Amino acid sequence: MVAHPLAPPNARAARSTGGGRDEVILAGAPPREPPSDRLAAISRGEVIPAEVHPELATEEHVLRVQNLKLWYGEKQALFDVNLDVPKGQVTAMIGPSGCGKSTLLRCVNRMNDLLDIVRIEGDMTLNGDSIYARDVDVIELRKRMGMVFQKPNPFPMSIYENVVYPLRIDGERDRRVLDEVCERSLRGAALWDEVKDRLQESALGMSGGQQQRLCIARAIAAEPEVLLLDEPCSALDPIATGKVEDLIQRLKGEYSVLIVTHNMQQASRISEYTAFMYLGRLMEYGPTEAIFTNPKLDETNSYVTGRFG
Amino acid sequence: MRGGPARSVVAGGEPAVWLSGAALAICLAMIGGLLALILWNGIGTFWPGELVRVTLRDGSAVLGEEYGTETYELRRASVPLLPAEARPVALAAFPEGEDAIEAVRVLLRTDNRRESGSTFTYVDAFEVQPGSKTTPSWAVVLERSDQGRFLGEPVRLVTPEQTYEGPEAAWEAFQKLRPAALERNERREELEEESGAGGVLIREAELRVRSAEMRTGVDGRDLARALSESALSASERTRLEAELAEKPADLREAIEEYVLLERRNDIQDAPRLAAMSELSAENAAEYLVMRTASGQEVEVETAEVVRGYRANALSWWGRLGVYLSRWWEFLSEEPRQAGTAGGVWPAIWGTVTMTLVMTVFVVPFGVLAALYLREYAKQGVIVSAVRVAVNNLAGVPSIVFGVFGLGFFCYLIGGGVDQLFYAERLPDPTFGKGGLLWASLTLALLTLPVVIVATEEALSAVPNSMREGSYACGASKWQTIRRIVLPRALPGILTGMILAVARGAGEVAPLMLVGAVNTAPALPVDLEAPFVHPSRSFMHLGFHIYDLGFQAPDGDAARPMVYTTMLLLIALVATLNLAAMWLRARLRRRFTSASF
């Protein structure tokens, strides 16, 4: 199961003396265990608490994930994930393919409900309100969040209608309100100047980067409490990526952003906090700078320095 | 091992290219051939050709339009079957020792079916006196309203006042008198219509009496009829009126209304009938005397001629005029003489109406069914089974749908509707027989699988990312379907509609059972309230083709019309398809996707 060679054993042993992480080892395990034992524990299916940096405790949290477990049919994809997303900041989730970061993101607005085979235990709270409680109205819940997907998915309608879609489905008809929201959202997504003269044209005629920023405009049209970005730049060229990254920087403060990315430079450029996930577990979570320059776990270090993943 | 010549041919894929190319070429040739045949025969039908006159060896003459020449094998043994005068000529044509020769015969459209009994005549080359073929300048074609075409030469024209002798004078007078004759015809038709309308009113009043009878349980129709007799003795009248006074109020009112209408109609009908018989007499008194090629003299009333022209004296433009006027008649008039002449307007209208009503039924049902299958139903064994069943439904022979439609729609549902709402008309069925509604529903059932399959394909082609995007905005499932999925799938759904229209418009077999007739008294949709008459039978181009080609009493004369009607049906289906394609193209343009 854990056949991934992280690093040569001697290198791991050498780094394991790095100190300061006795507290993360499982209770009852002998101190100063080499990290290979952490992976061995994972492979035995044991619960591994994440390495969470103390800076996070000082933040106000918009979203809290509590002991989330998720199964695709028989196969478990998330194991006891606990993650608190700070308010008004950009939080990045990194990790190798298949580590469950997109799955976790899609759990936040319950997109996984659309799949019959998914089973979930544990809970999340959005500003204190449970997401997975029995009596939650999923549709109302989703209206409190915005989500942007890997590939731009504008709807087959005009640019204007795309942006005001969240209001339209709420039955908003007042032209003034719609116009105002459209302009505010497009300005927010740094797209207004490019499209203000062709709002009534089909959104499908825009370039890929414009389409993705349109999707962001759509996601922020309803003033979401948290913005979920699932690898928003993976289908874009570098210039479009740069524009979207600038945009995310601008959204910071006003919106709480949770972004999944494969691109570690991107995570380090745009996020305040970074969570490293591996094999369905949250491994380490802390300020981006600390994760990239001085991680507490060897696995994190190996990943961010490109030695695997 | 490698590089052998045989091997390299196979490896290069050349045979596959040739094979597939040849298959395509054969397909195209067959389709092209079919279309060319129909076009050639269909377009030529109405062109007025020259009339030729040939004298035969027995002294008789034949006048007709040449339809073609064919060669056949003549055996010595069958020479005695030729006319007596042609036999020596034919025998002389056999070389020594030969038992069979190629002989030639000409097919002439001689018309004059009433006079001679046939529309076409074969003239054997051996029969013809050499050099006797002429194109007489006074050969005239008269299209009669109910007797078929007449070919011959005018002799004189007789009116009550005057007789015009000689072809020239007669023809000139004929041209001059025709407008008045046509006016008389129109006037006559109007009178007939009026009296028909009166009849309808009386029939309706009678139905009201019948339904009042059914409500009250008291008989009244016999009384109503007796009361409306015009020759009633005073005592009889008093007795009947006393009887009427005893009837329940409902029934009494209905009877009184009926009697009133009958009397009014009697009063109005008398002058109508007089006027009609006067017009008939006028028509009968004004006639052309024509001479056939065989010398027989025939009287043709001017009023009975729909179209008349001098076939050999027409210029090219004159011919074009006749050709176009025949096309216009074909497209806008009702059929005459069991469809061999006149037009097919009721059939065009019936086909279009039936197809549209079918589309109105089949598209919403098919789309909703496909929506449930694709968007709501949990994909599994049952849904797969349903899908297989729907696909198989597309392969069921159409006549099976016809039988089902007749049993289920016409007899079961239609019979029930009659019992409930039209009981006074029984035993005459109203909905309990074939009609527009049942035919459309039957064809809707027939084309349902096409729509369902196409819609399902279109729905599954909508990327899931769009659905997810919509859900992420907080849209419900229905909002997502209505605002995102359906608009995006619309071009595909329209493709399904096009296929359904194409299939439905051309289907004939089930219609024979559930509503298509060879002559419909009235159109299924007209200007008469309530405008749409779903219980009426209708004419259909496809059925008309079958009826003309294989059921008409004069099959030979009908053949050219069969081709023209086929051409029209193909053009109609193509037009319906093009309209739907245009619609789809417009929608596509709205949803064109930028590729990135």
UniProtKB/TrEMBL annotation, chain A:
PROSITE patterns: ABC_TRANSPORTER_1, ABC_TRANSPORTER_2. This is Phosphate import ATP-binding protein PstB. InterPro entries: AAA+_ATPase, ABC_transporter-like_ATP-bd, ABC_transporter-like_CS, P-loop_NTPase, PstB-like. The keyword Chaperone does not apply. Residues 1-36 are annotated as: Disordered. GO terms for molecular function: ATP binding. Residues 63-304 form the ABC transporter domain. Keywords: ATP-binding, Cell inner membrane, Cell membrane, Membrane, Nucleotide-binding, Phosphate transport, Translocase, Transport. The keyword Lipid biosynthesis does not apply. The gene is pstB. It comes from Alienimonas chondri.
UniProtKB/TrEMBL annotation, chain B:
Residues 348-580 form the ABC transmembrane type-1 domain. The chain crosses the membrane at residues 16-40, 347-373, 393-414, 435-455, 561-583. Pfam families: BPD_transp_1. It is found in: Cell membrane. It is a multi-pass membrane protein. The keyword Cytoplasm does not apply. Keywords: Cell membrane, Membrane, Transmembrane, Transmembrane helix, Transport. PANTHER family: PHOSPHATE TRANSPORT SYSTEM PERMEASE PROTEIN PSTA, PHOSPHATE TRANSPORT SYSTEM PERMEASE PROTEIN PSTA-RELATED. Belongs to the binding-protein-dependent transport system permease family. CysTW subfamily. This is Phosphate transport system permease protein PstA. It comes from Alienimonas chondri. The lineage of its organism: Bacteria, Pseudomonadati, Planctomycetota, Planctomycetia, Planctomycetales.
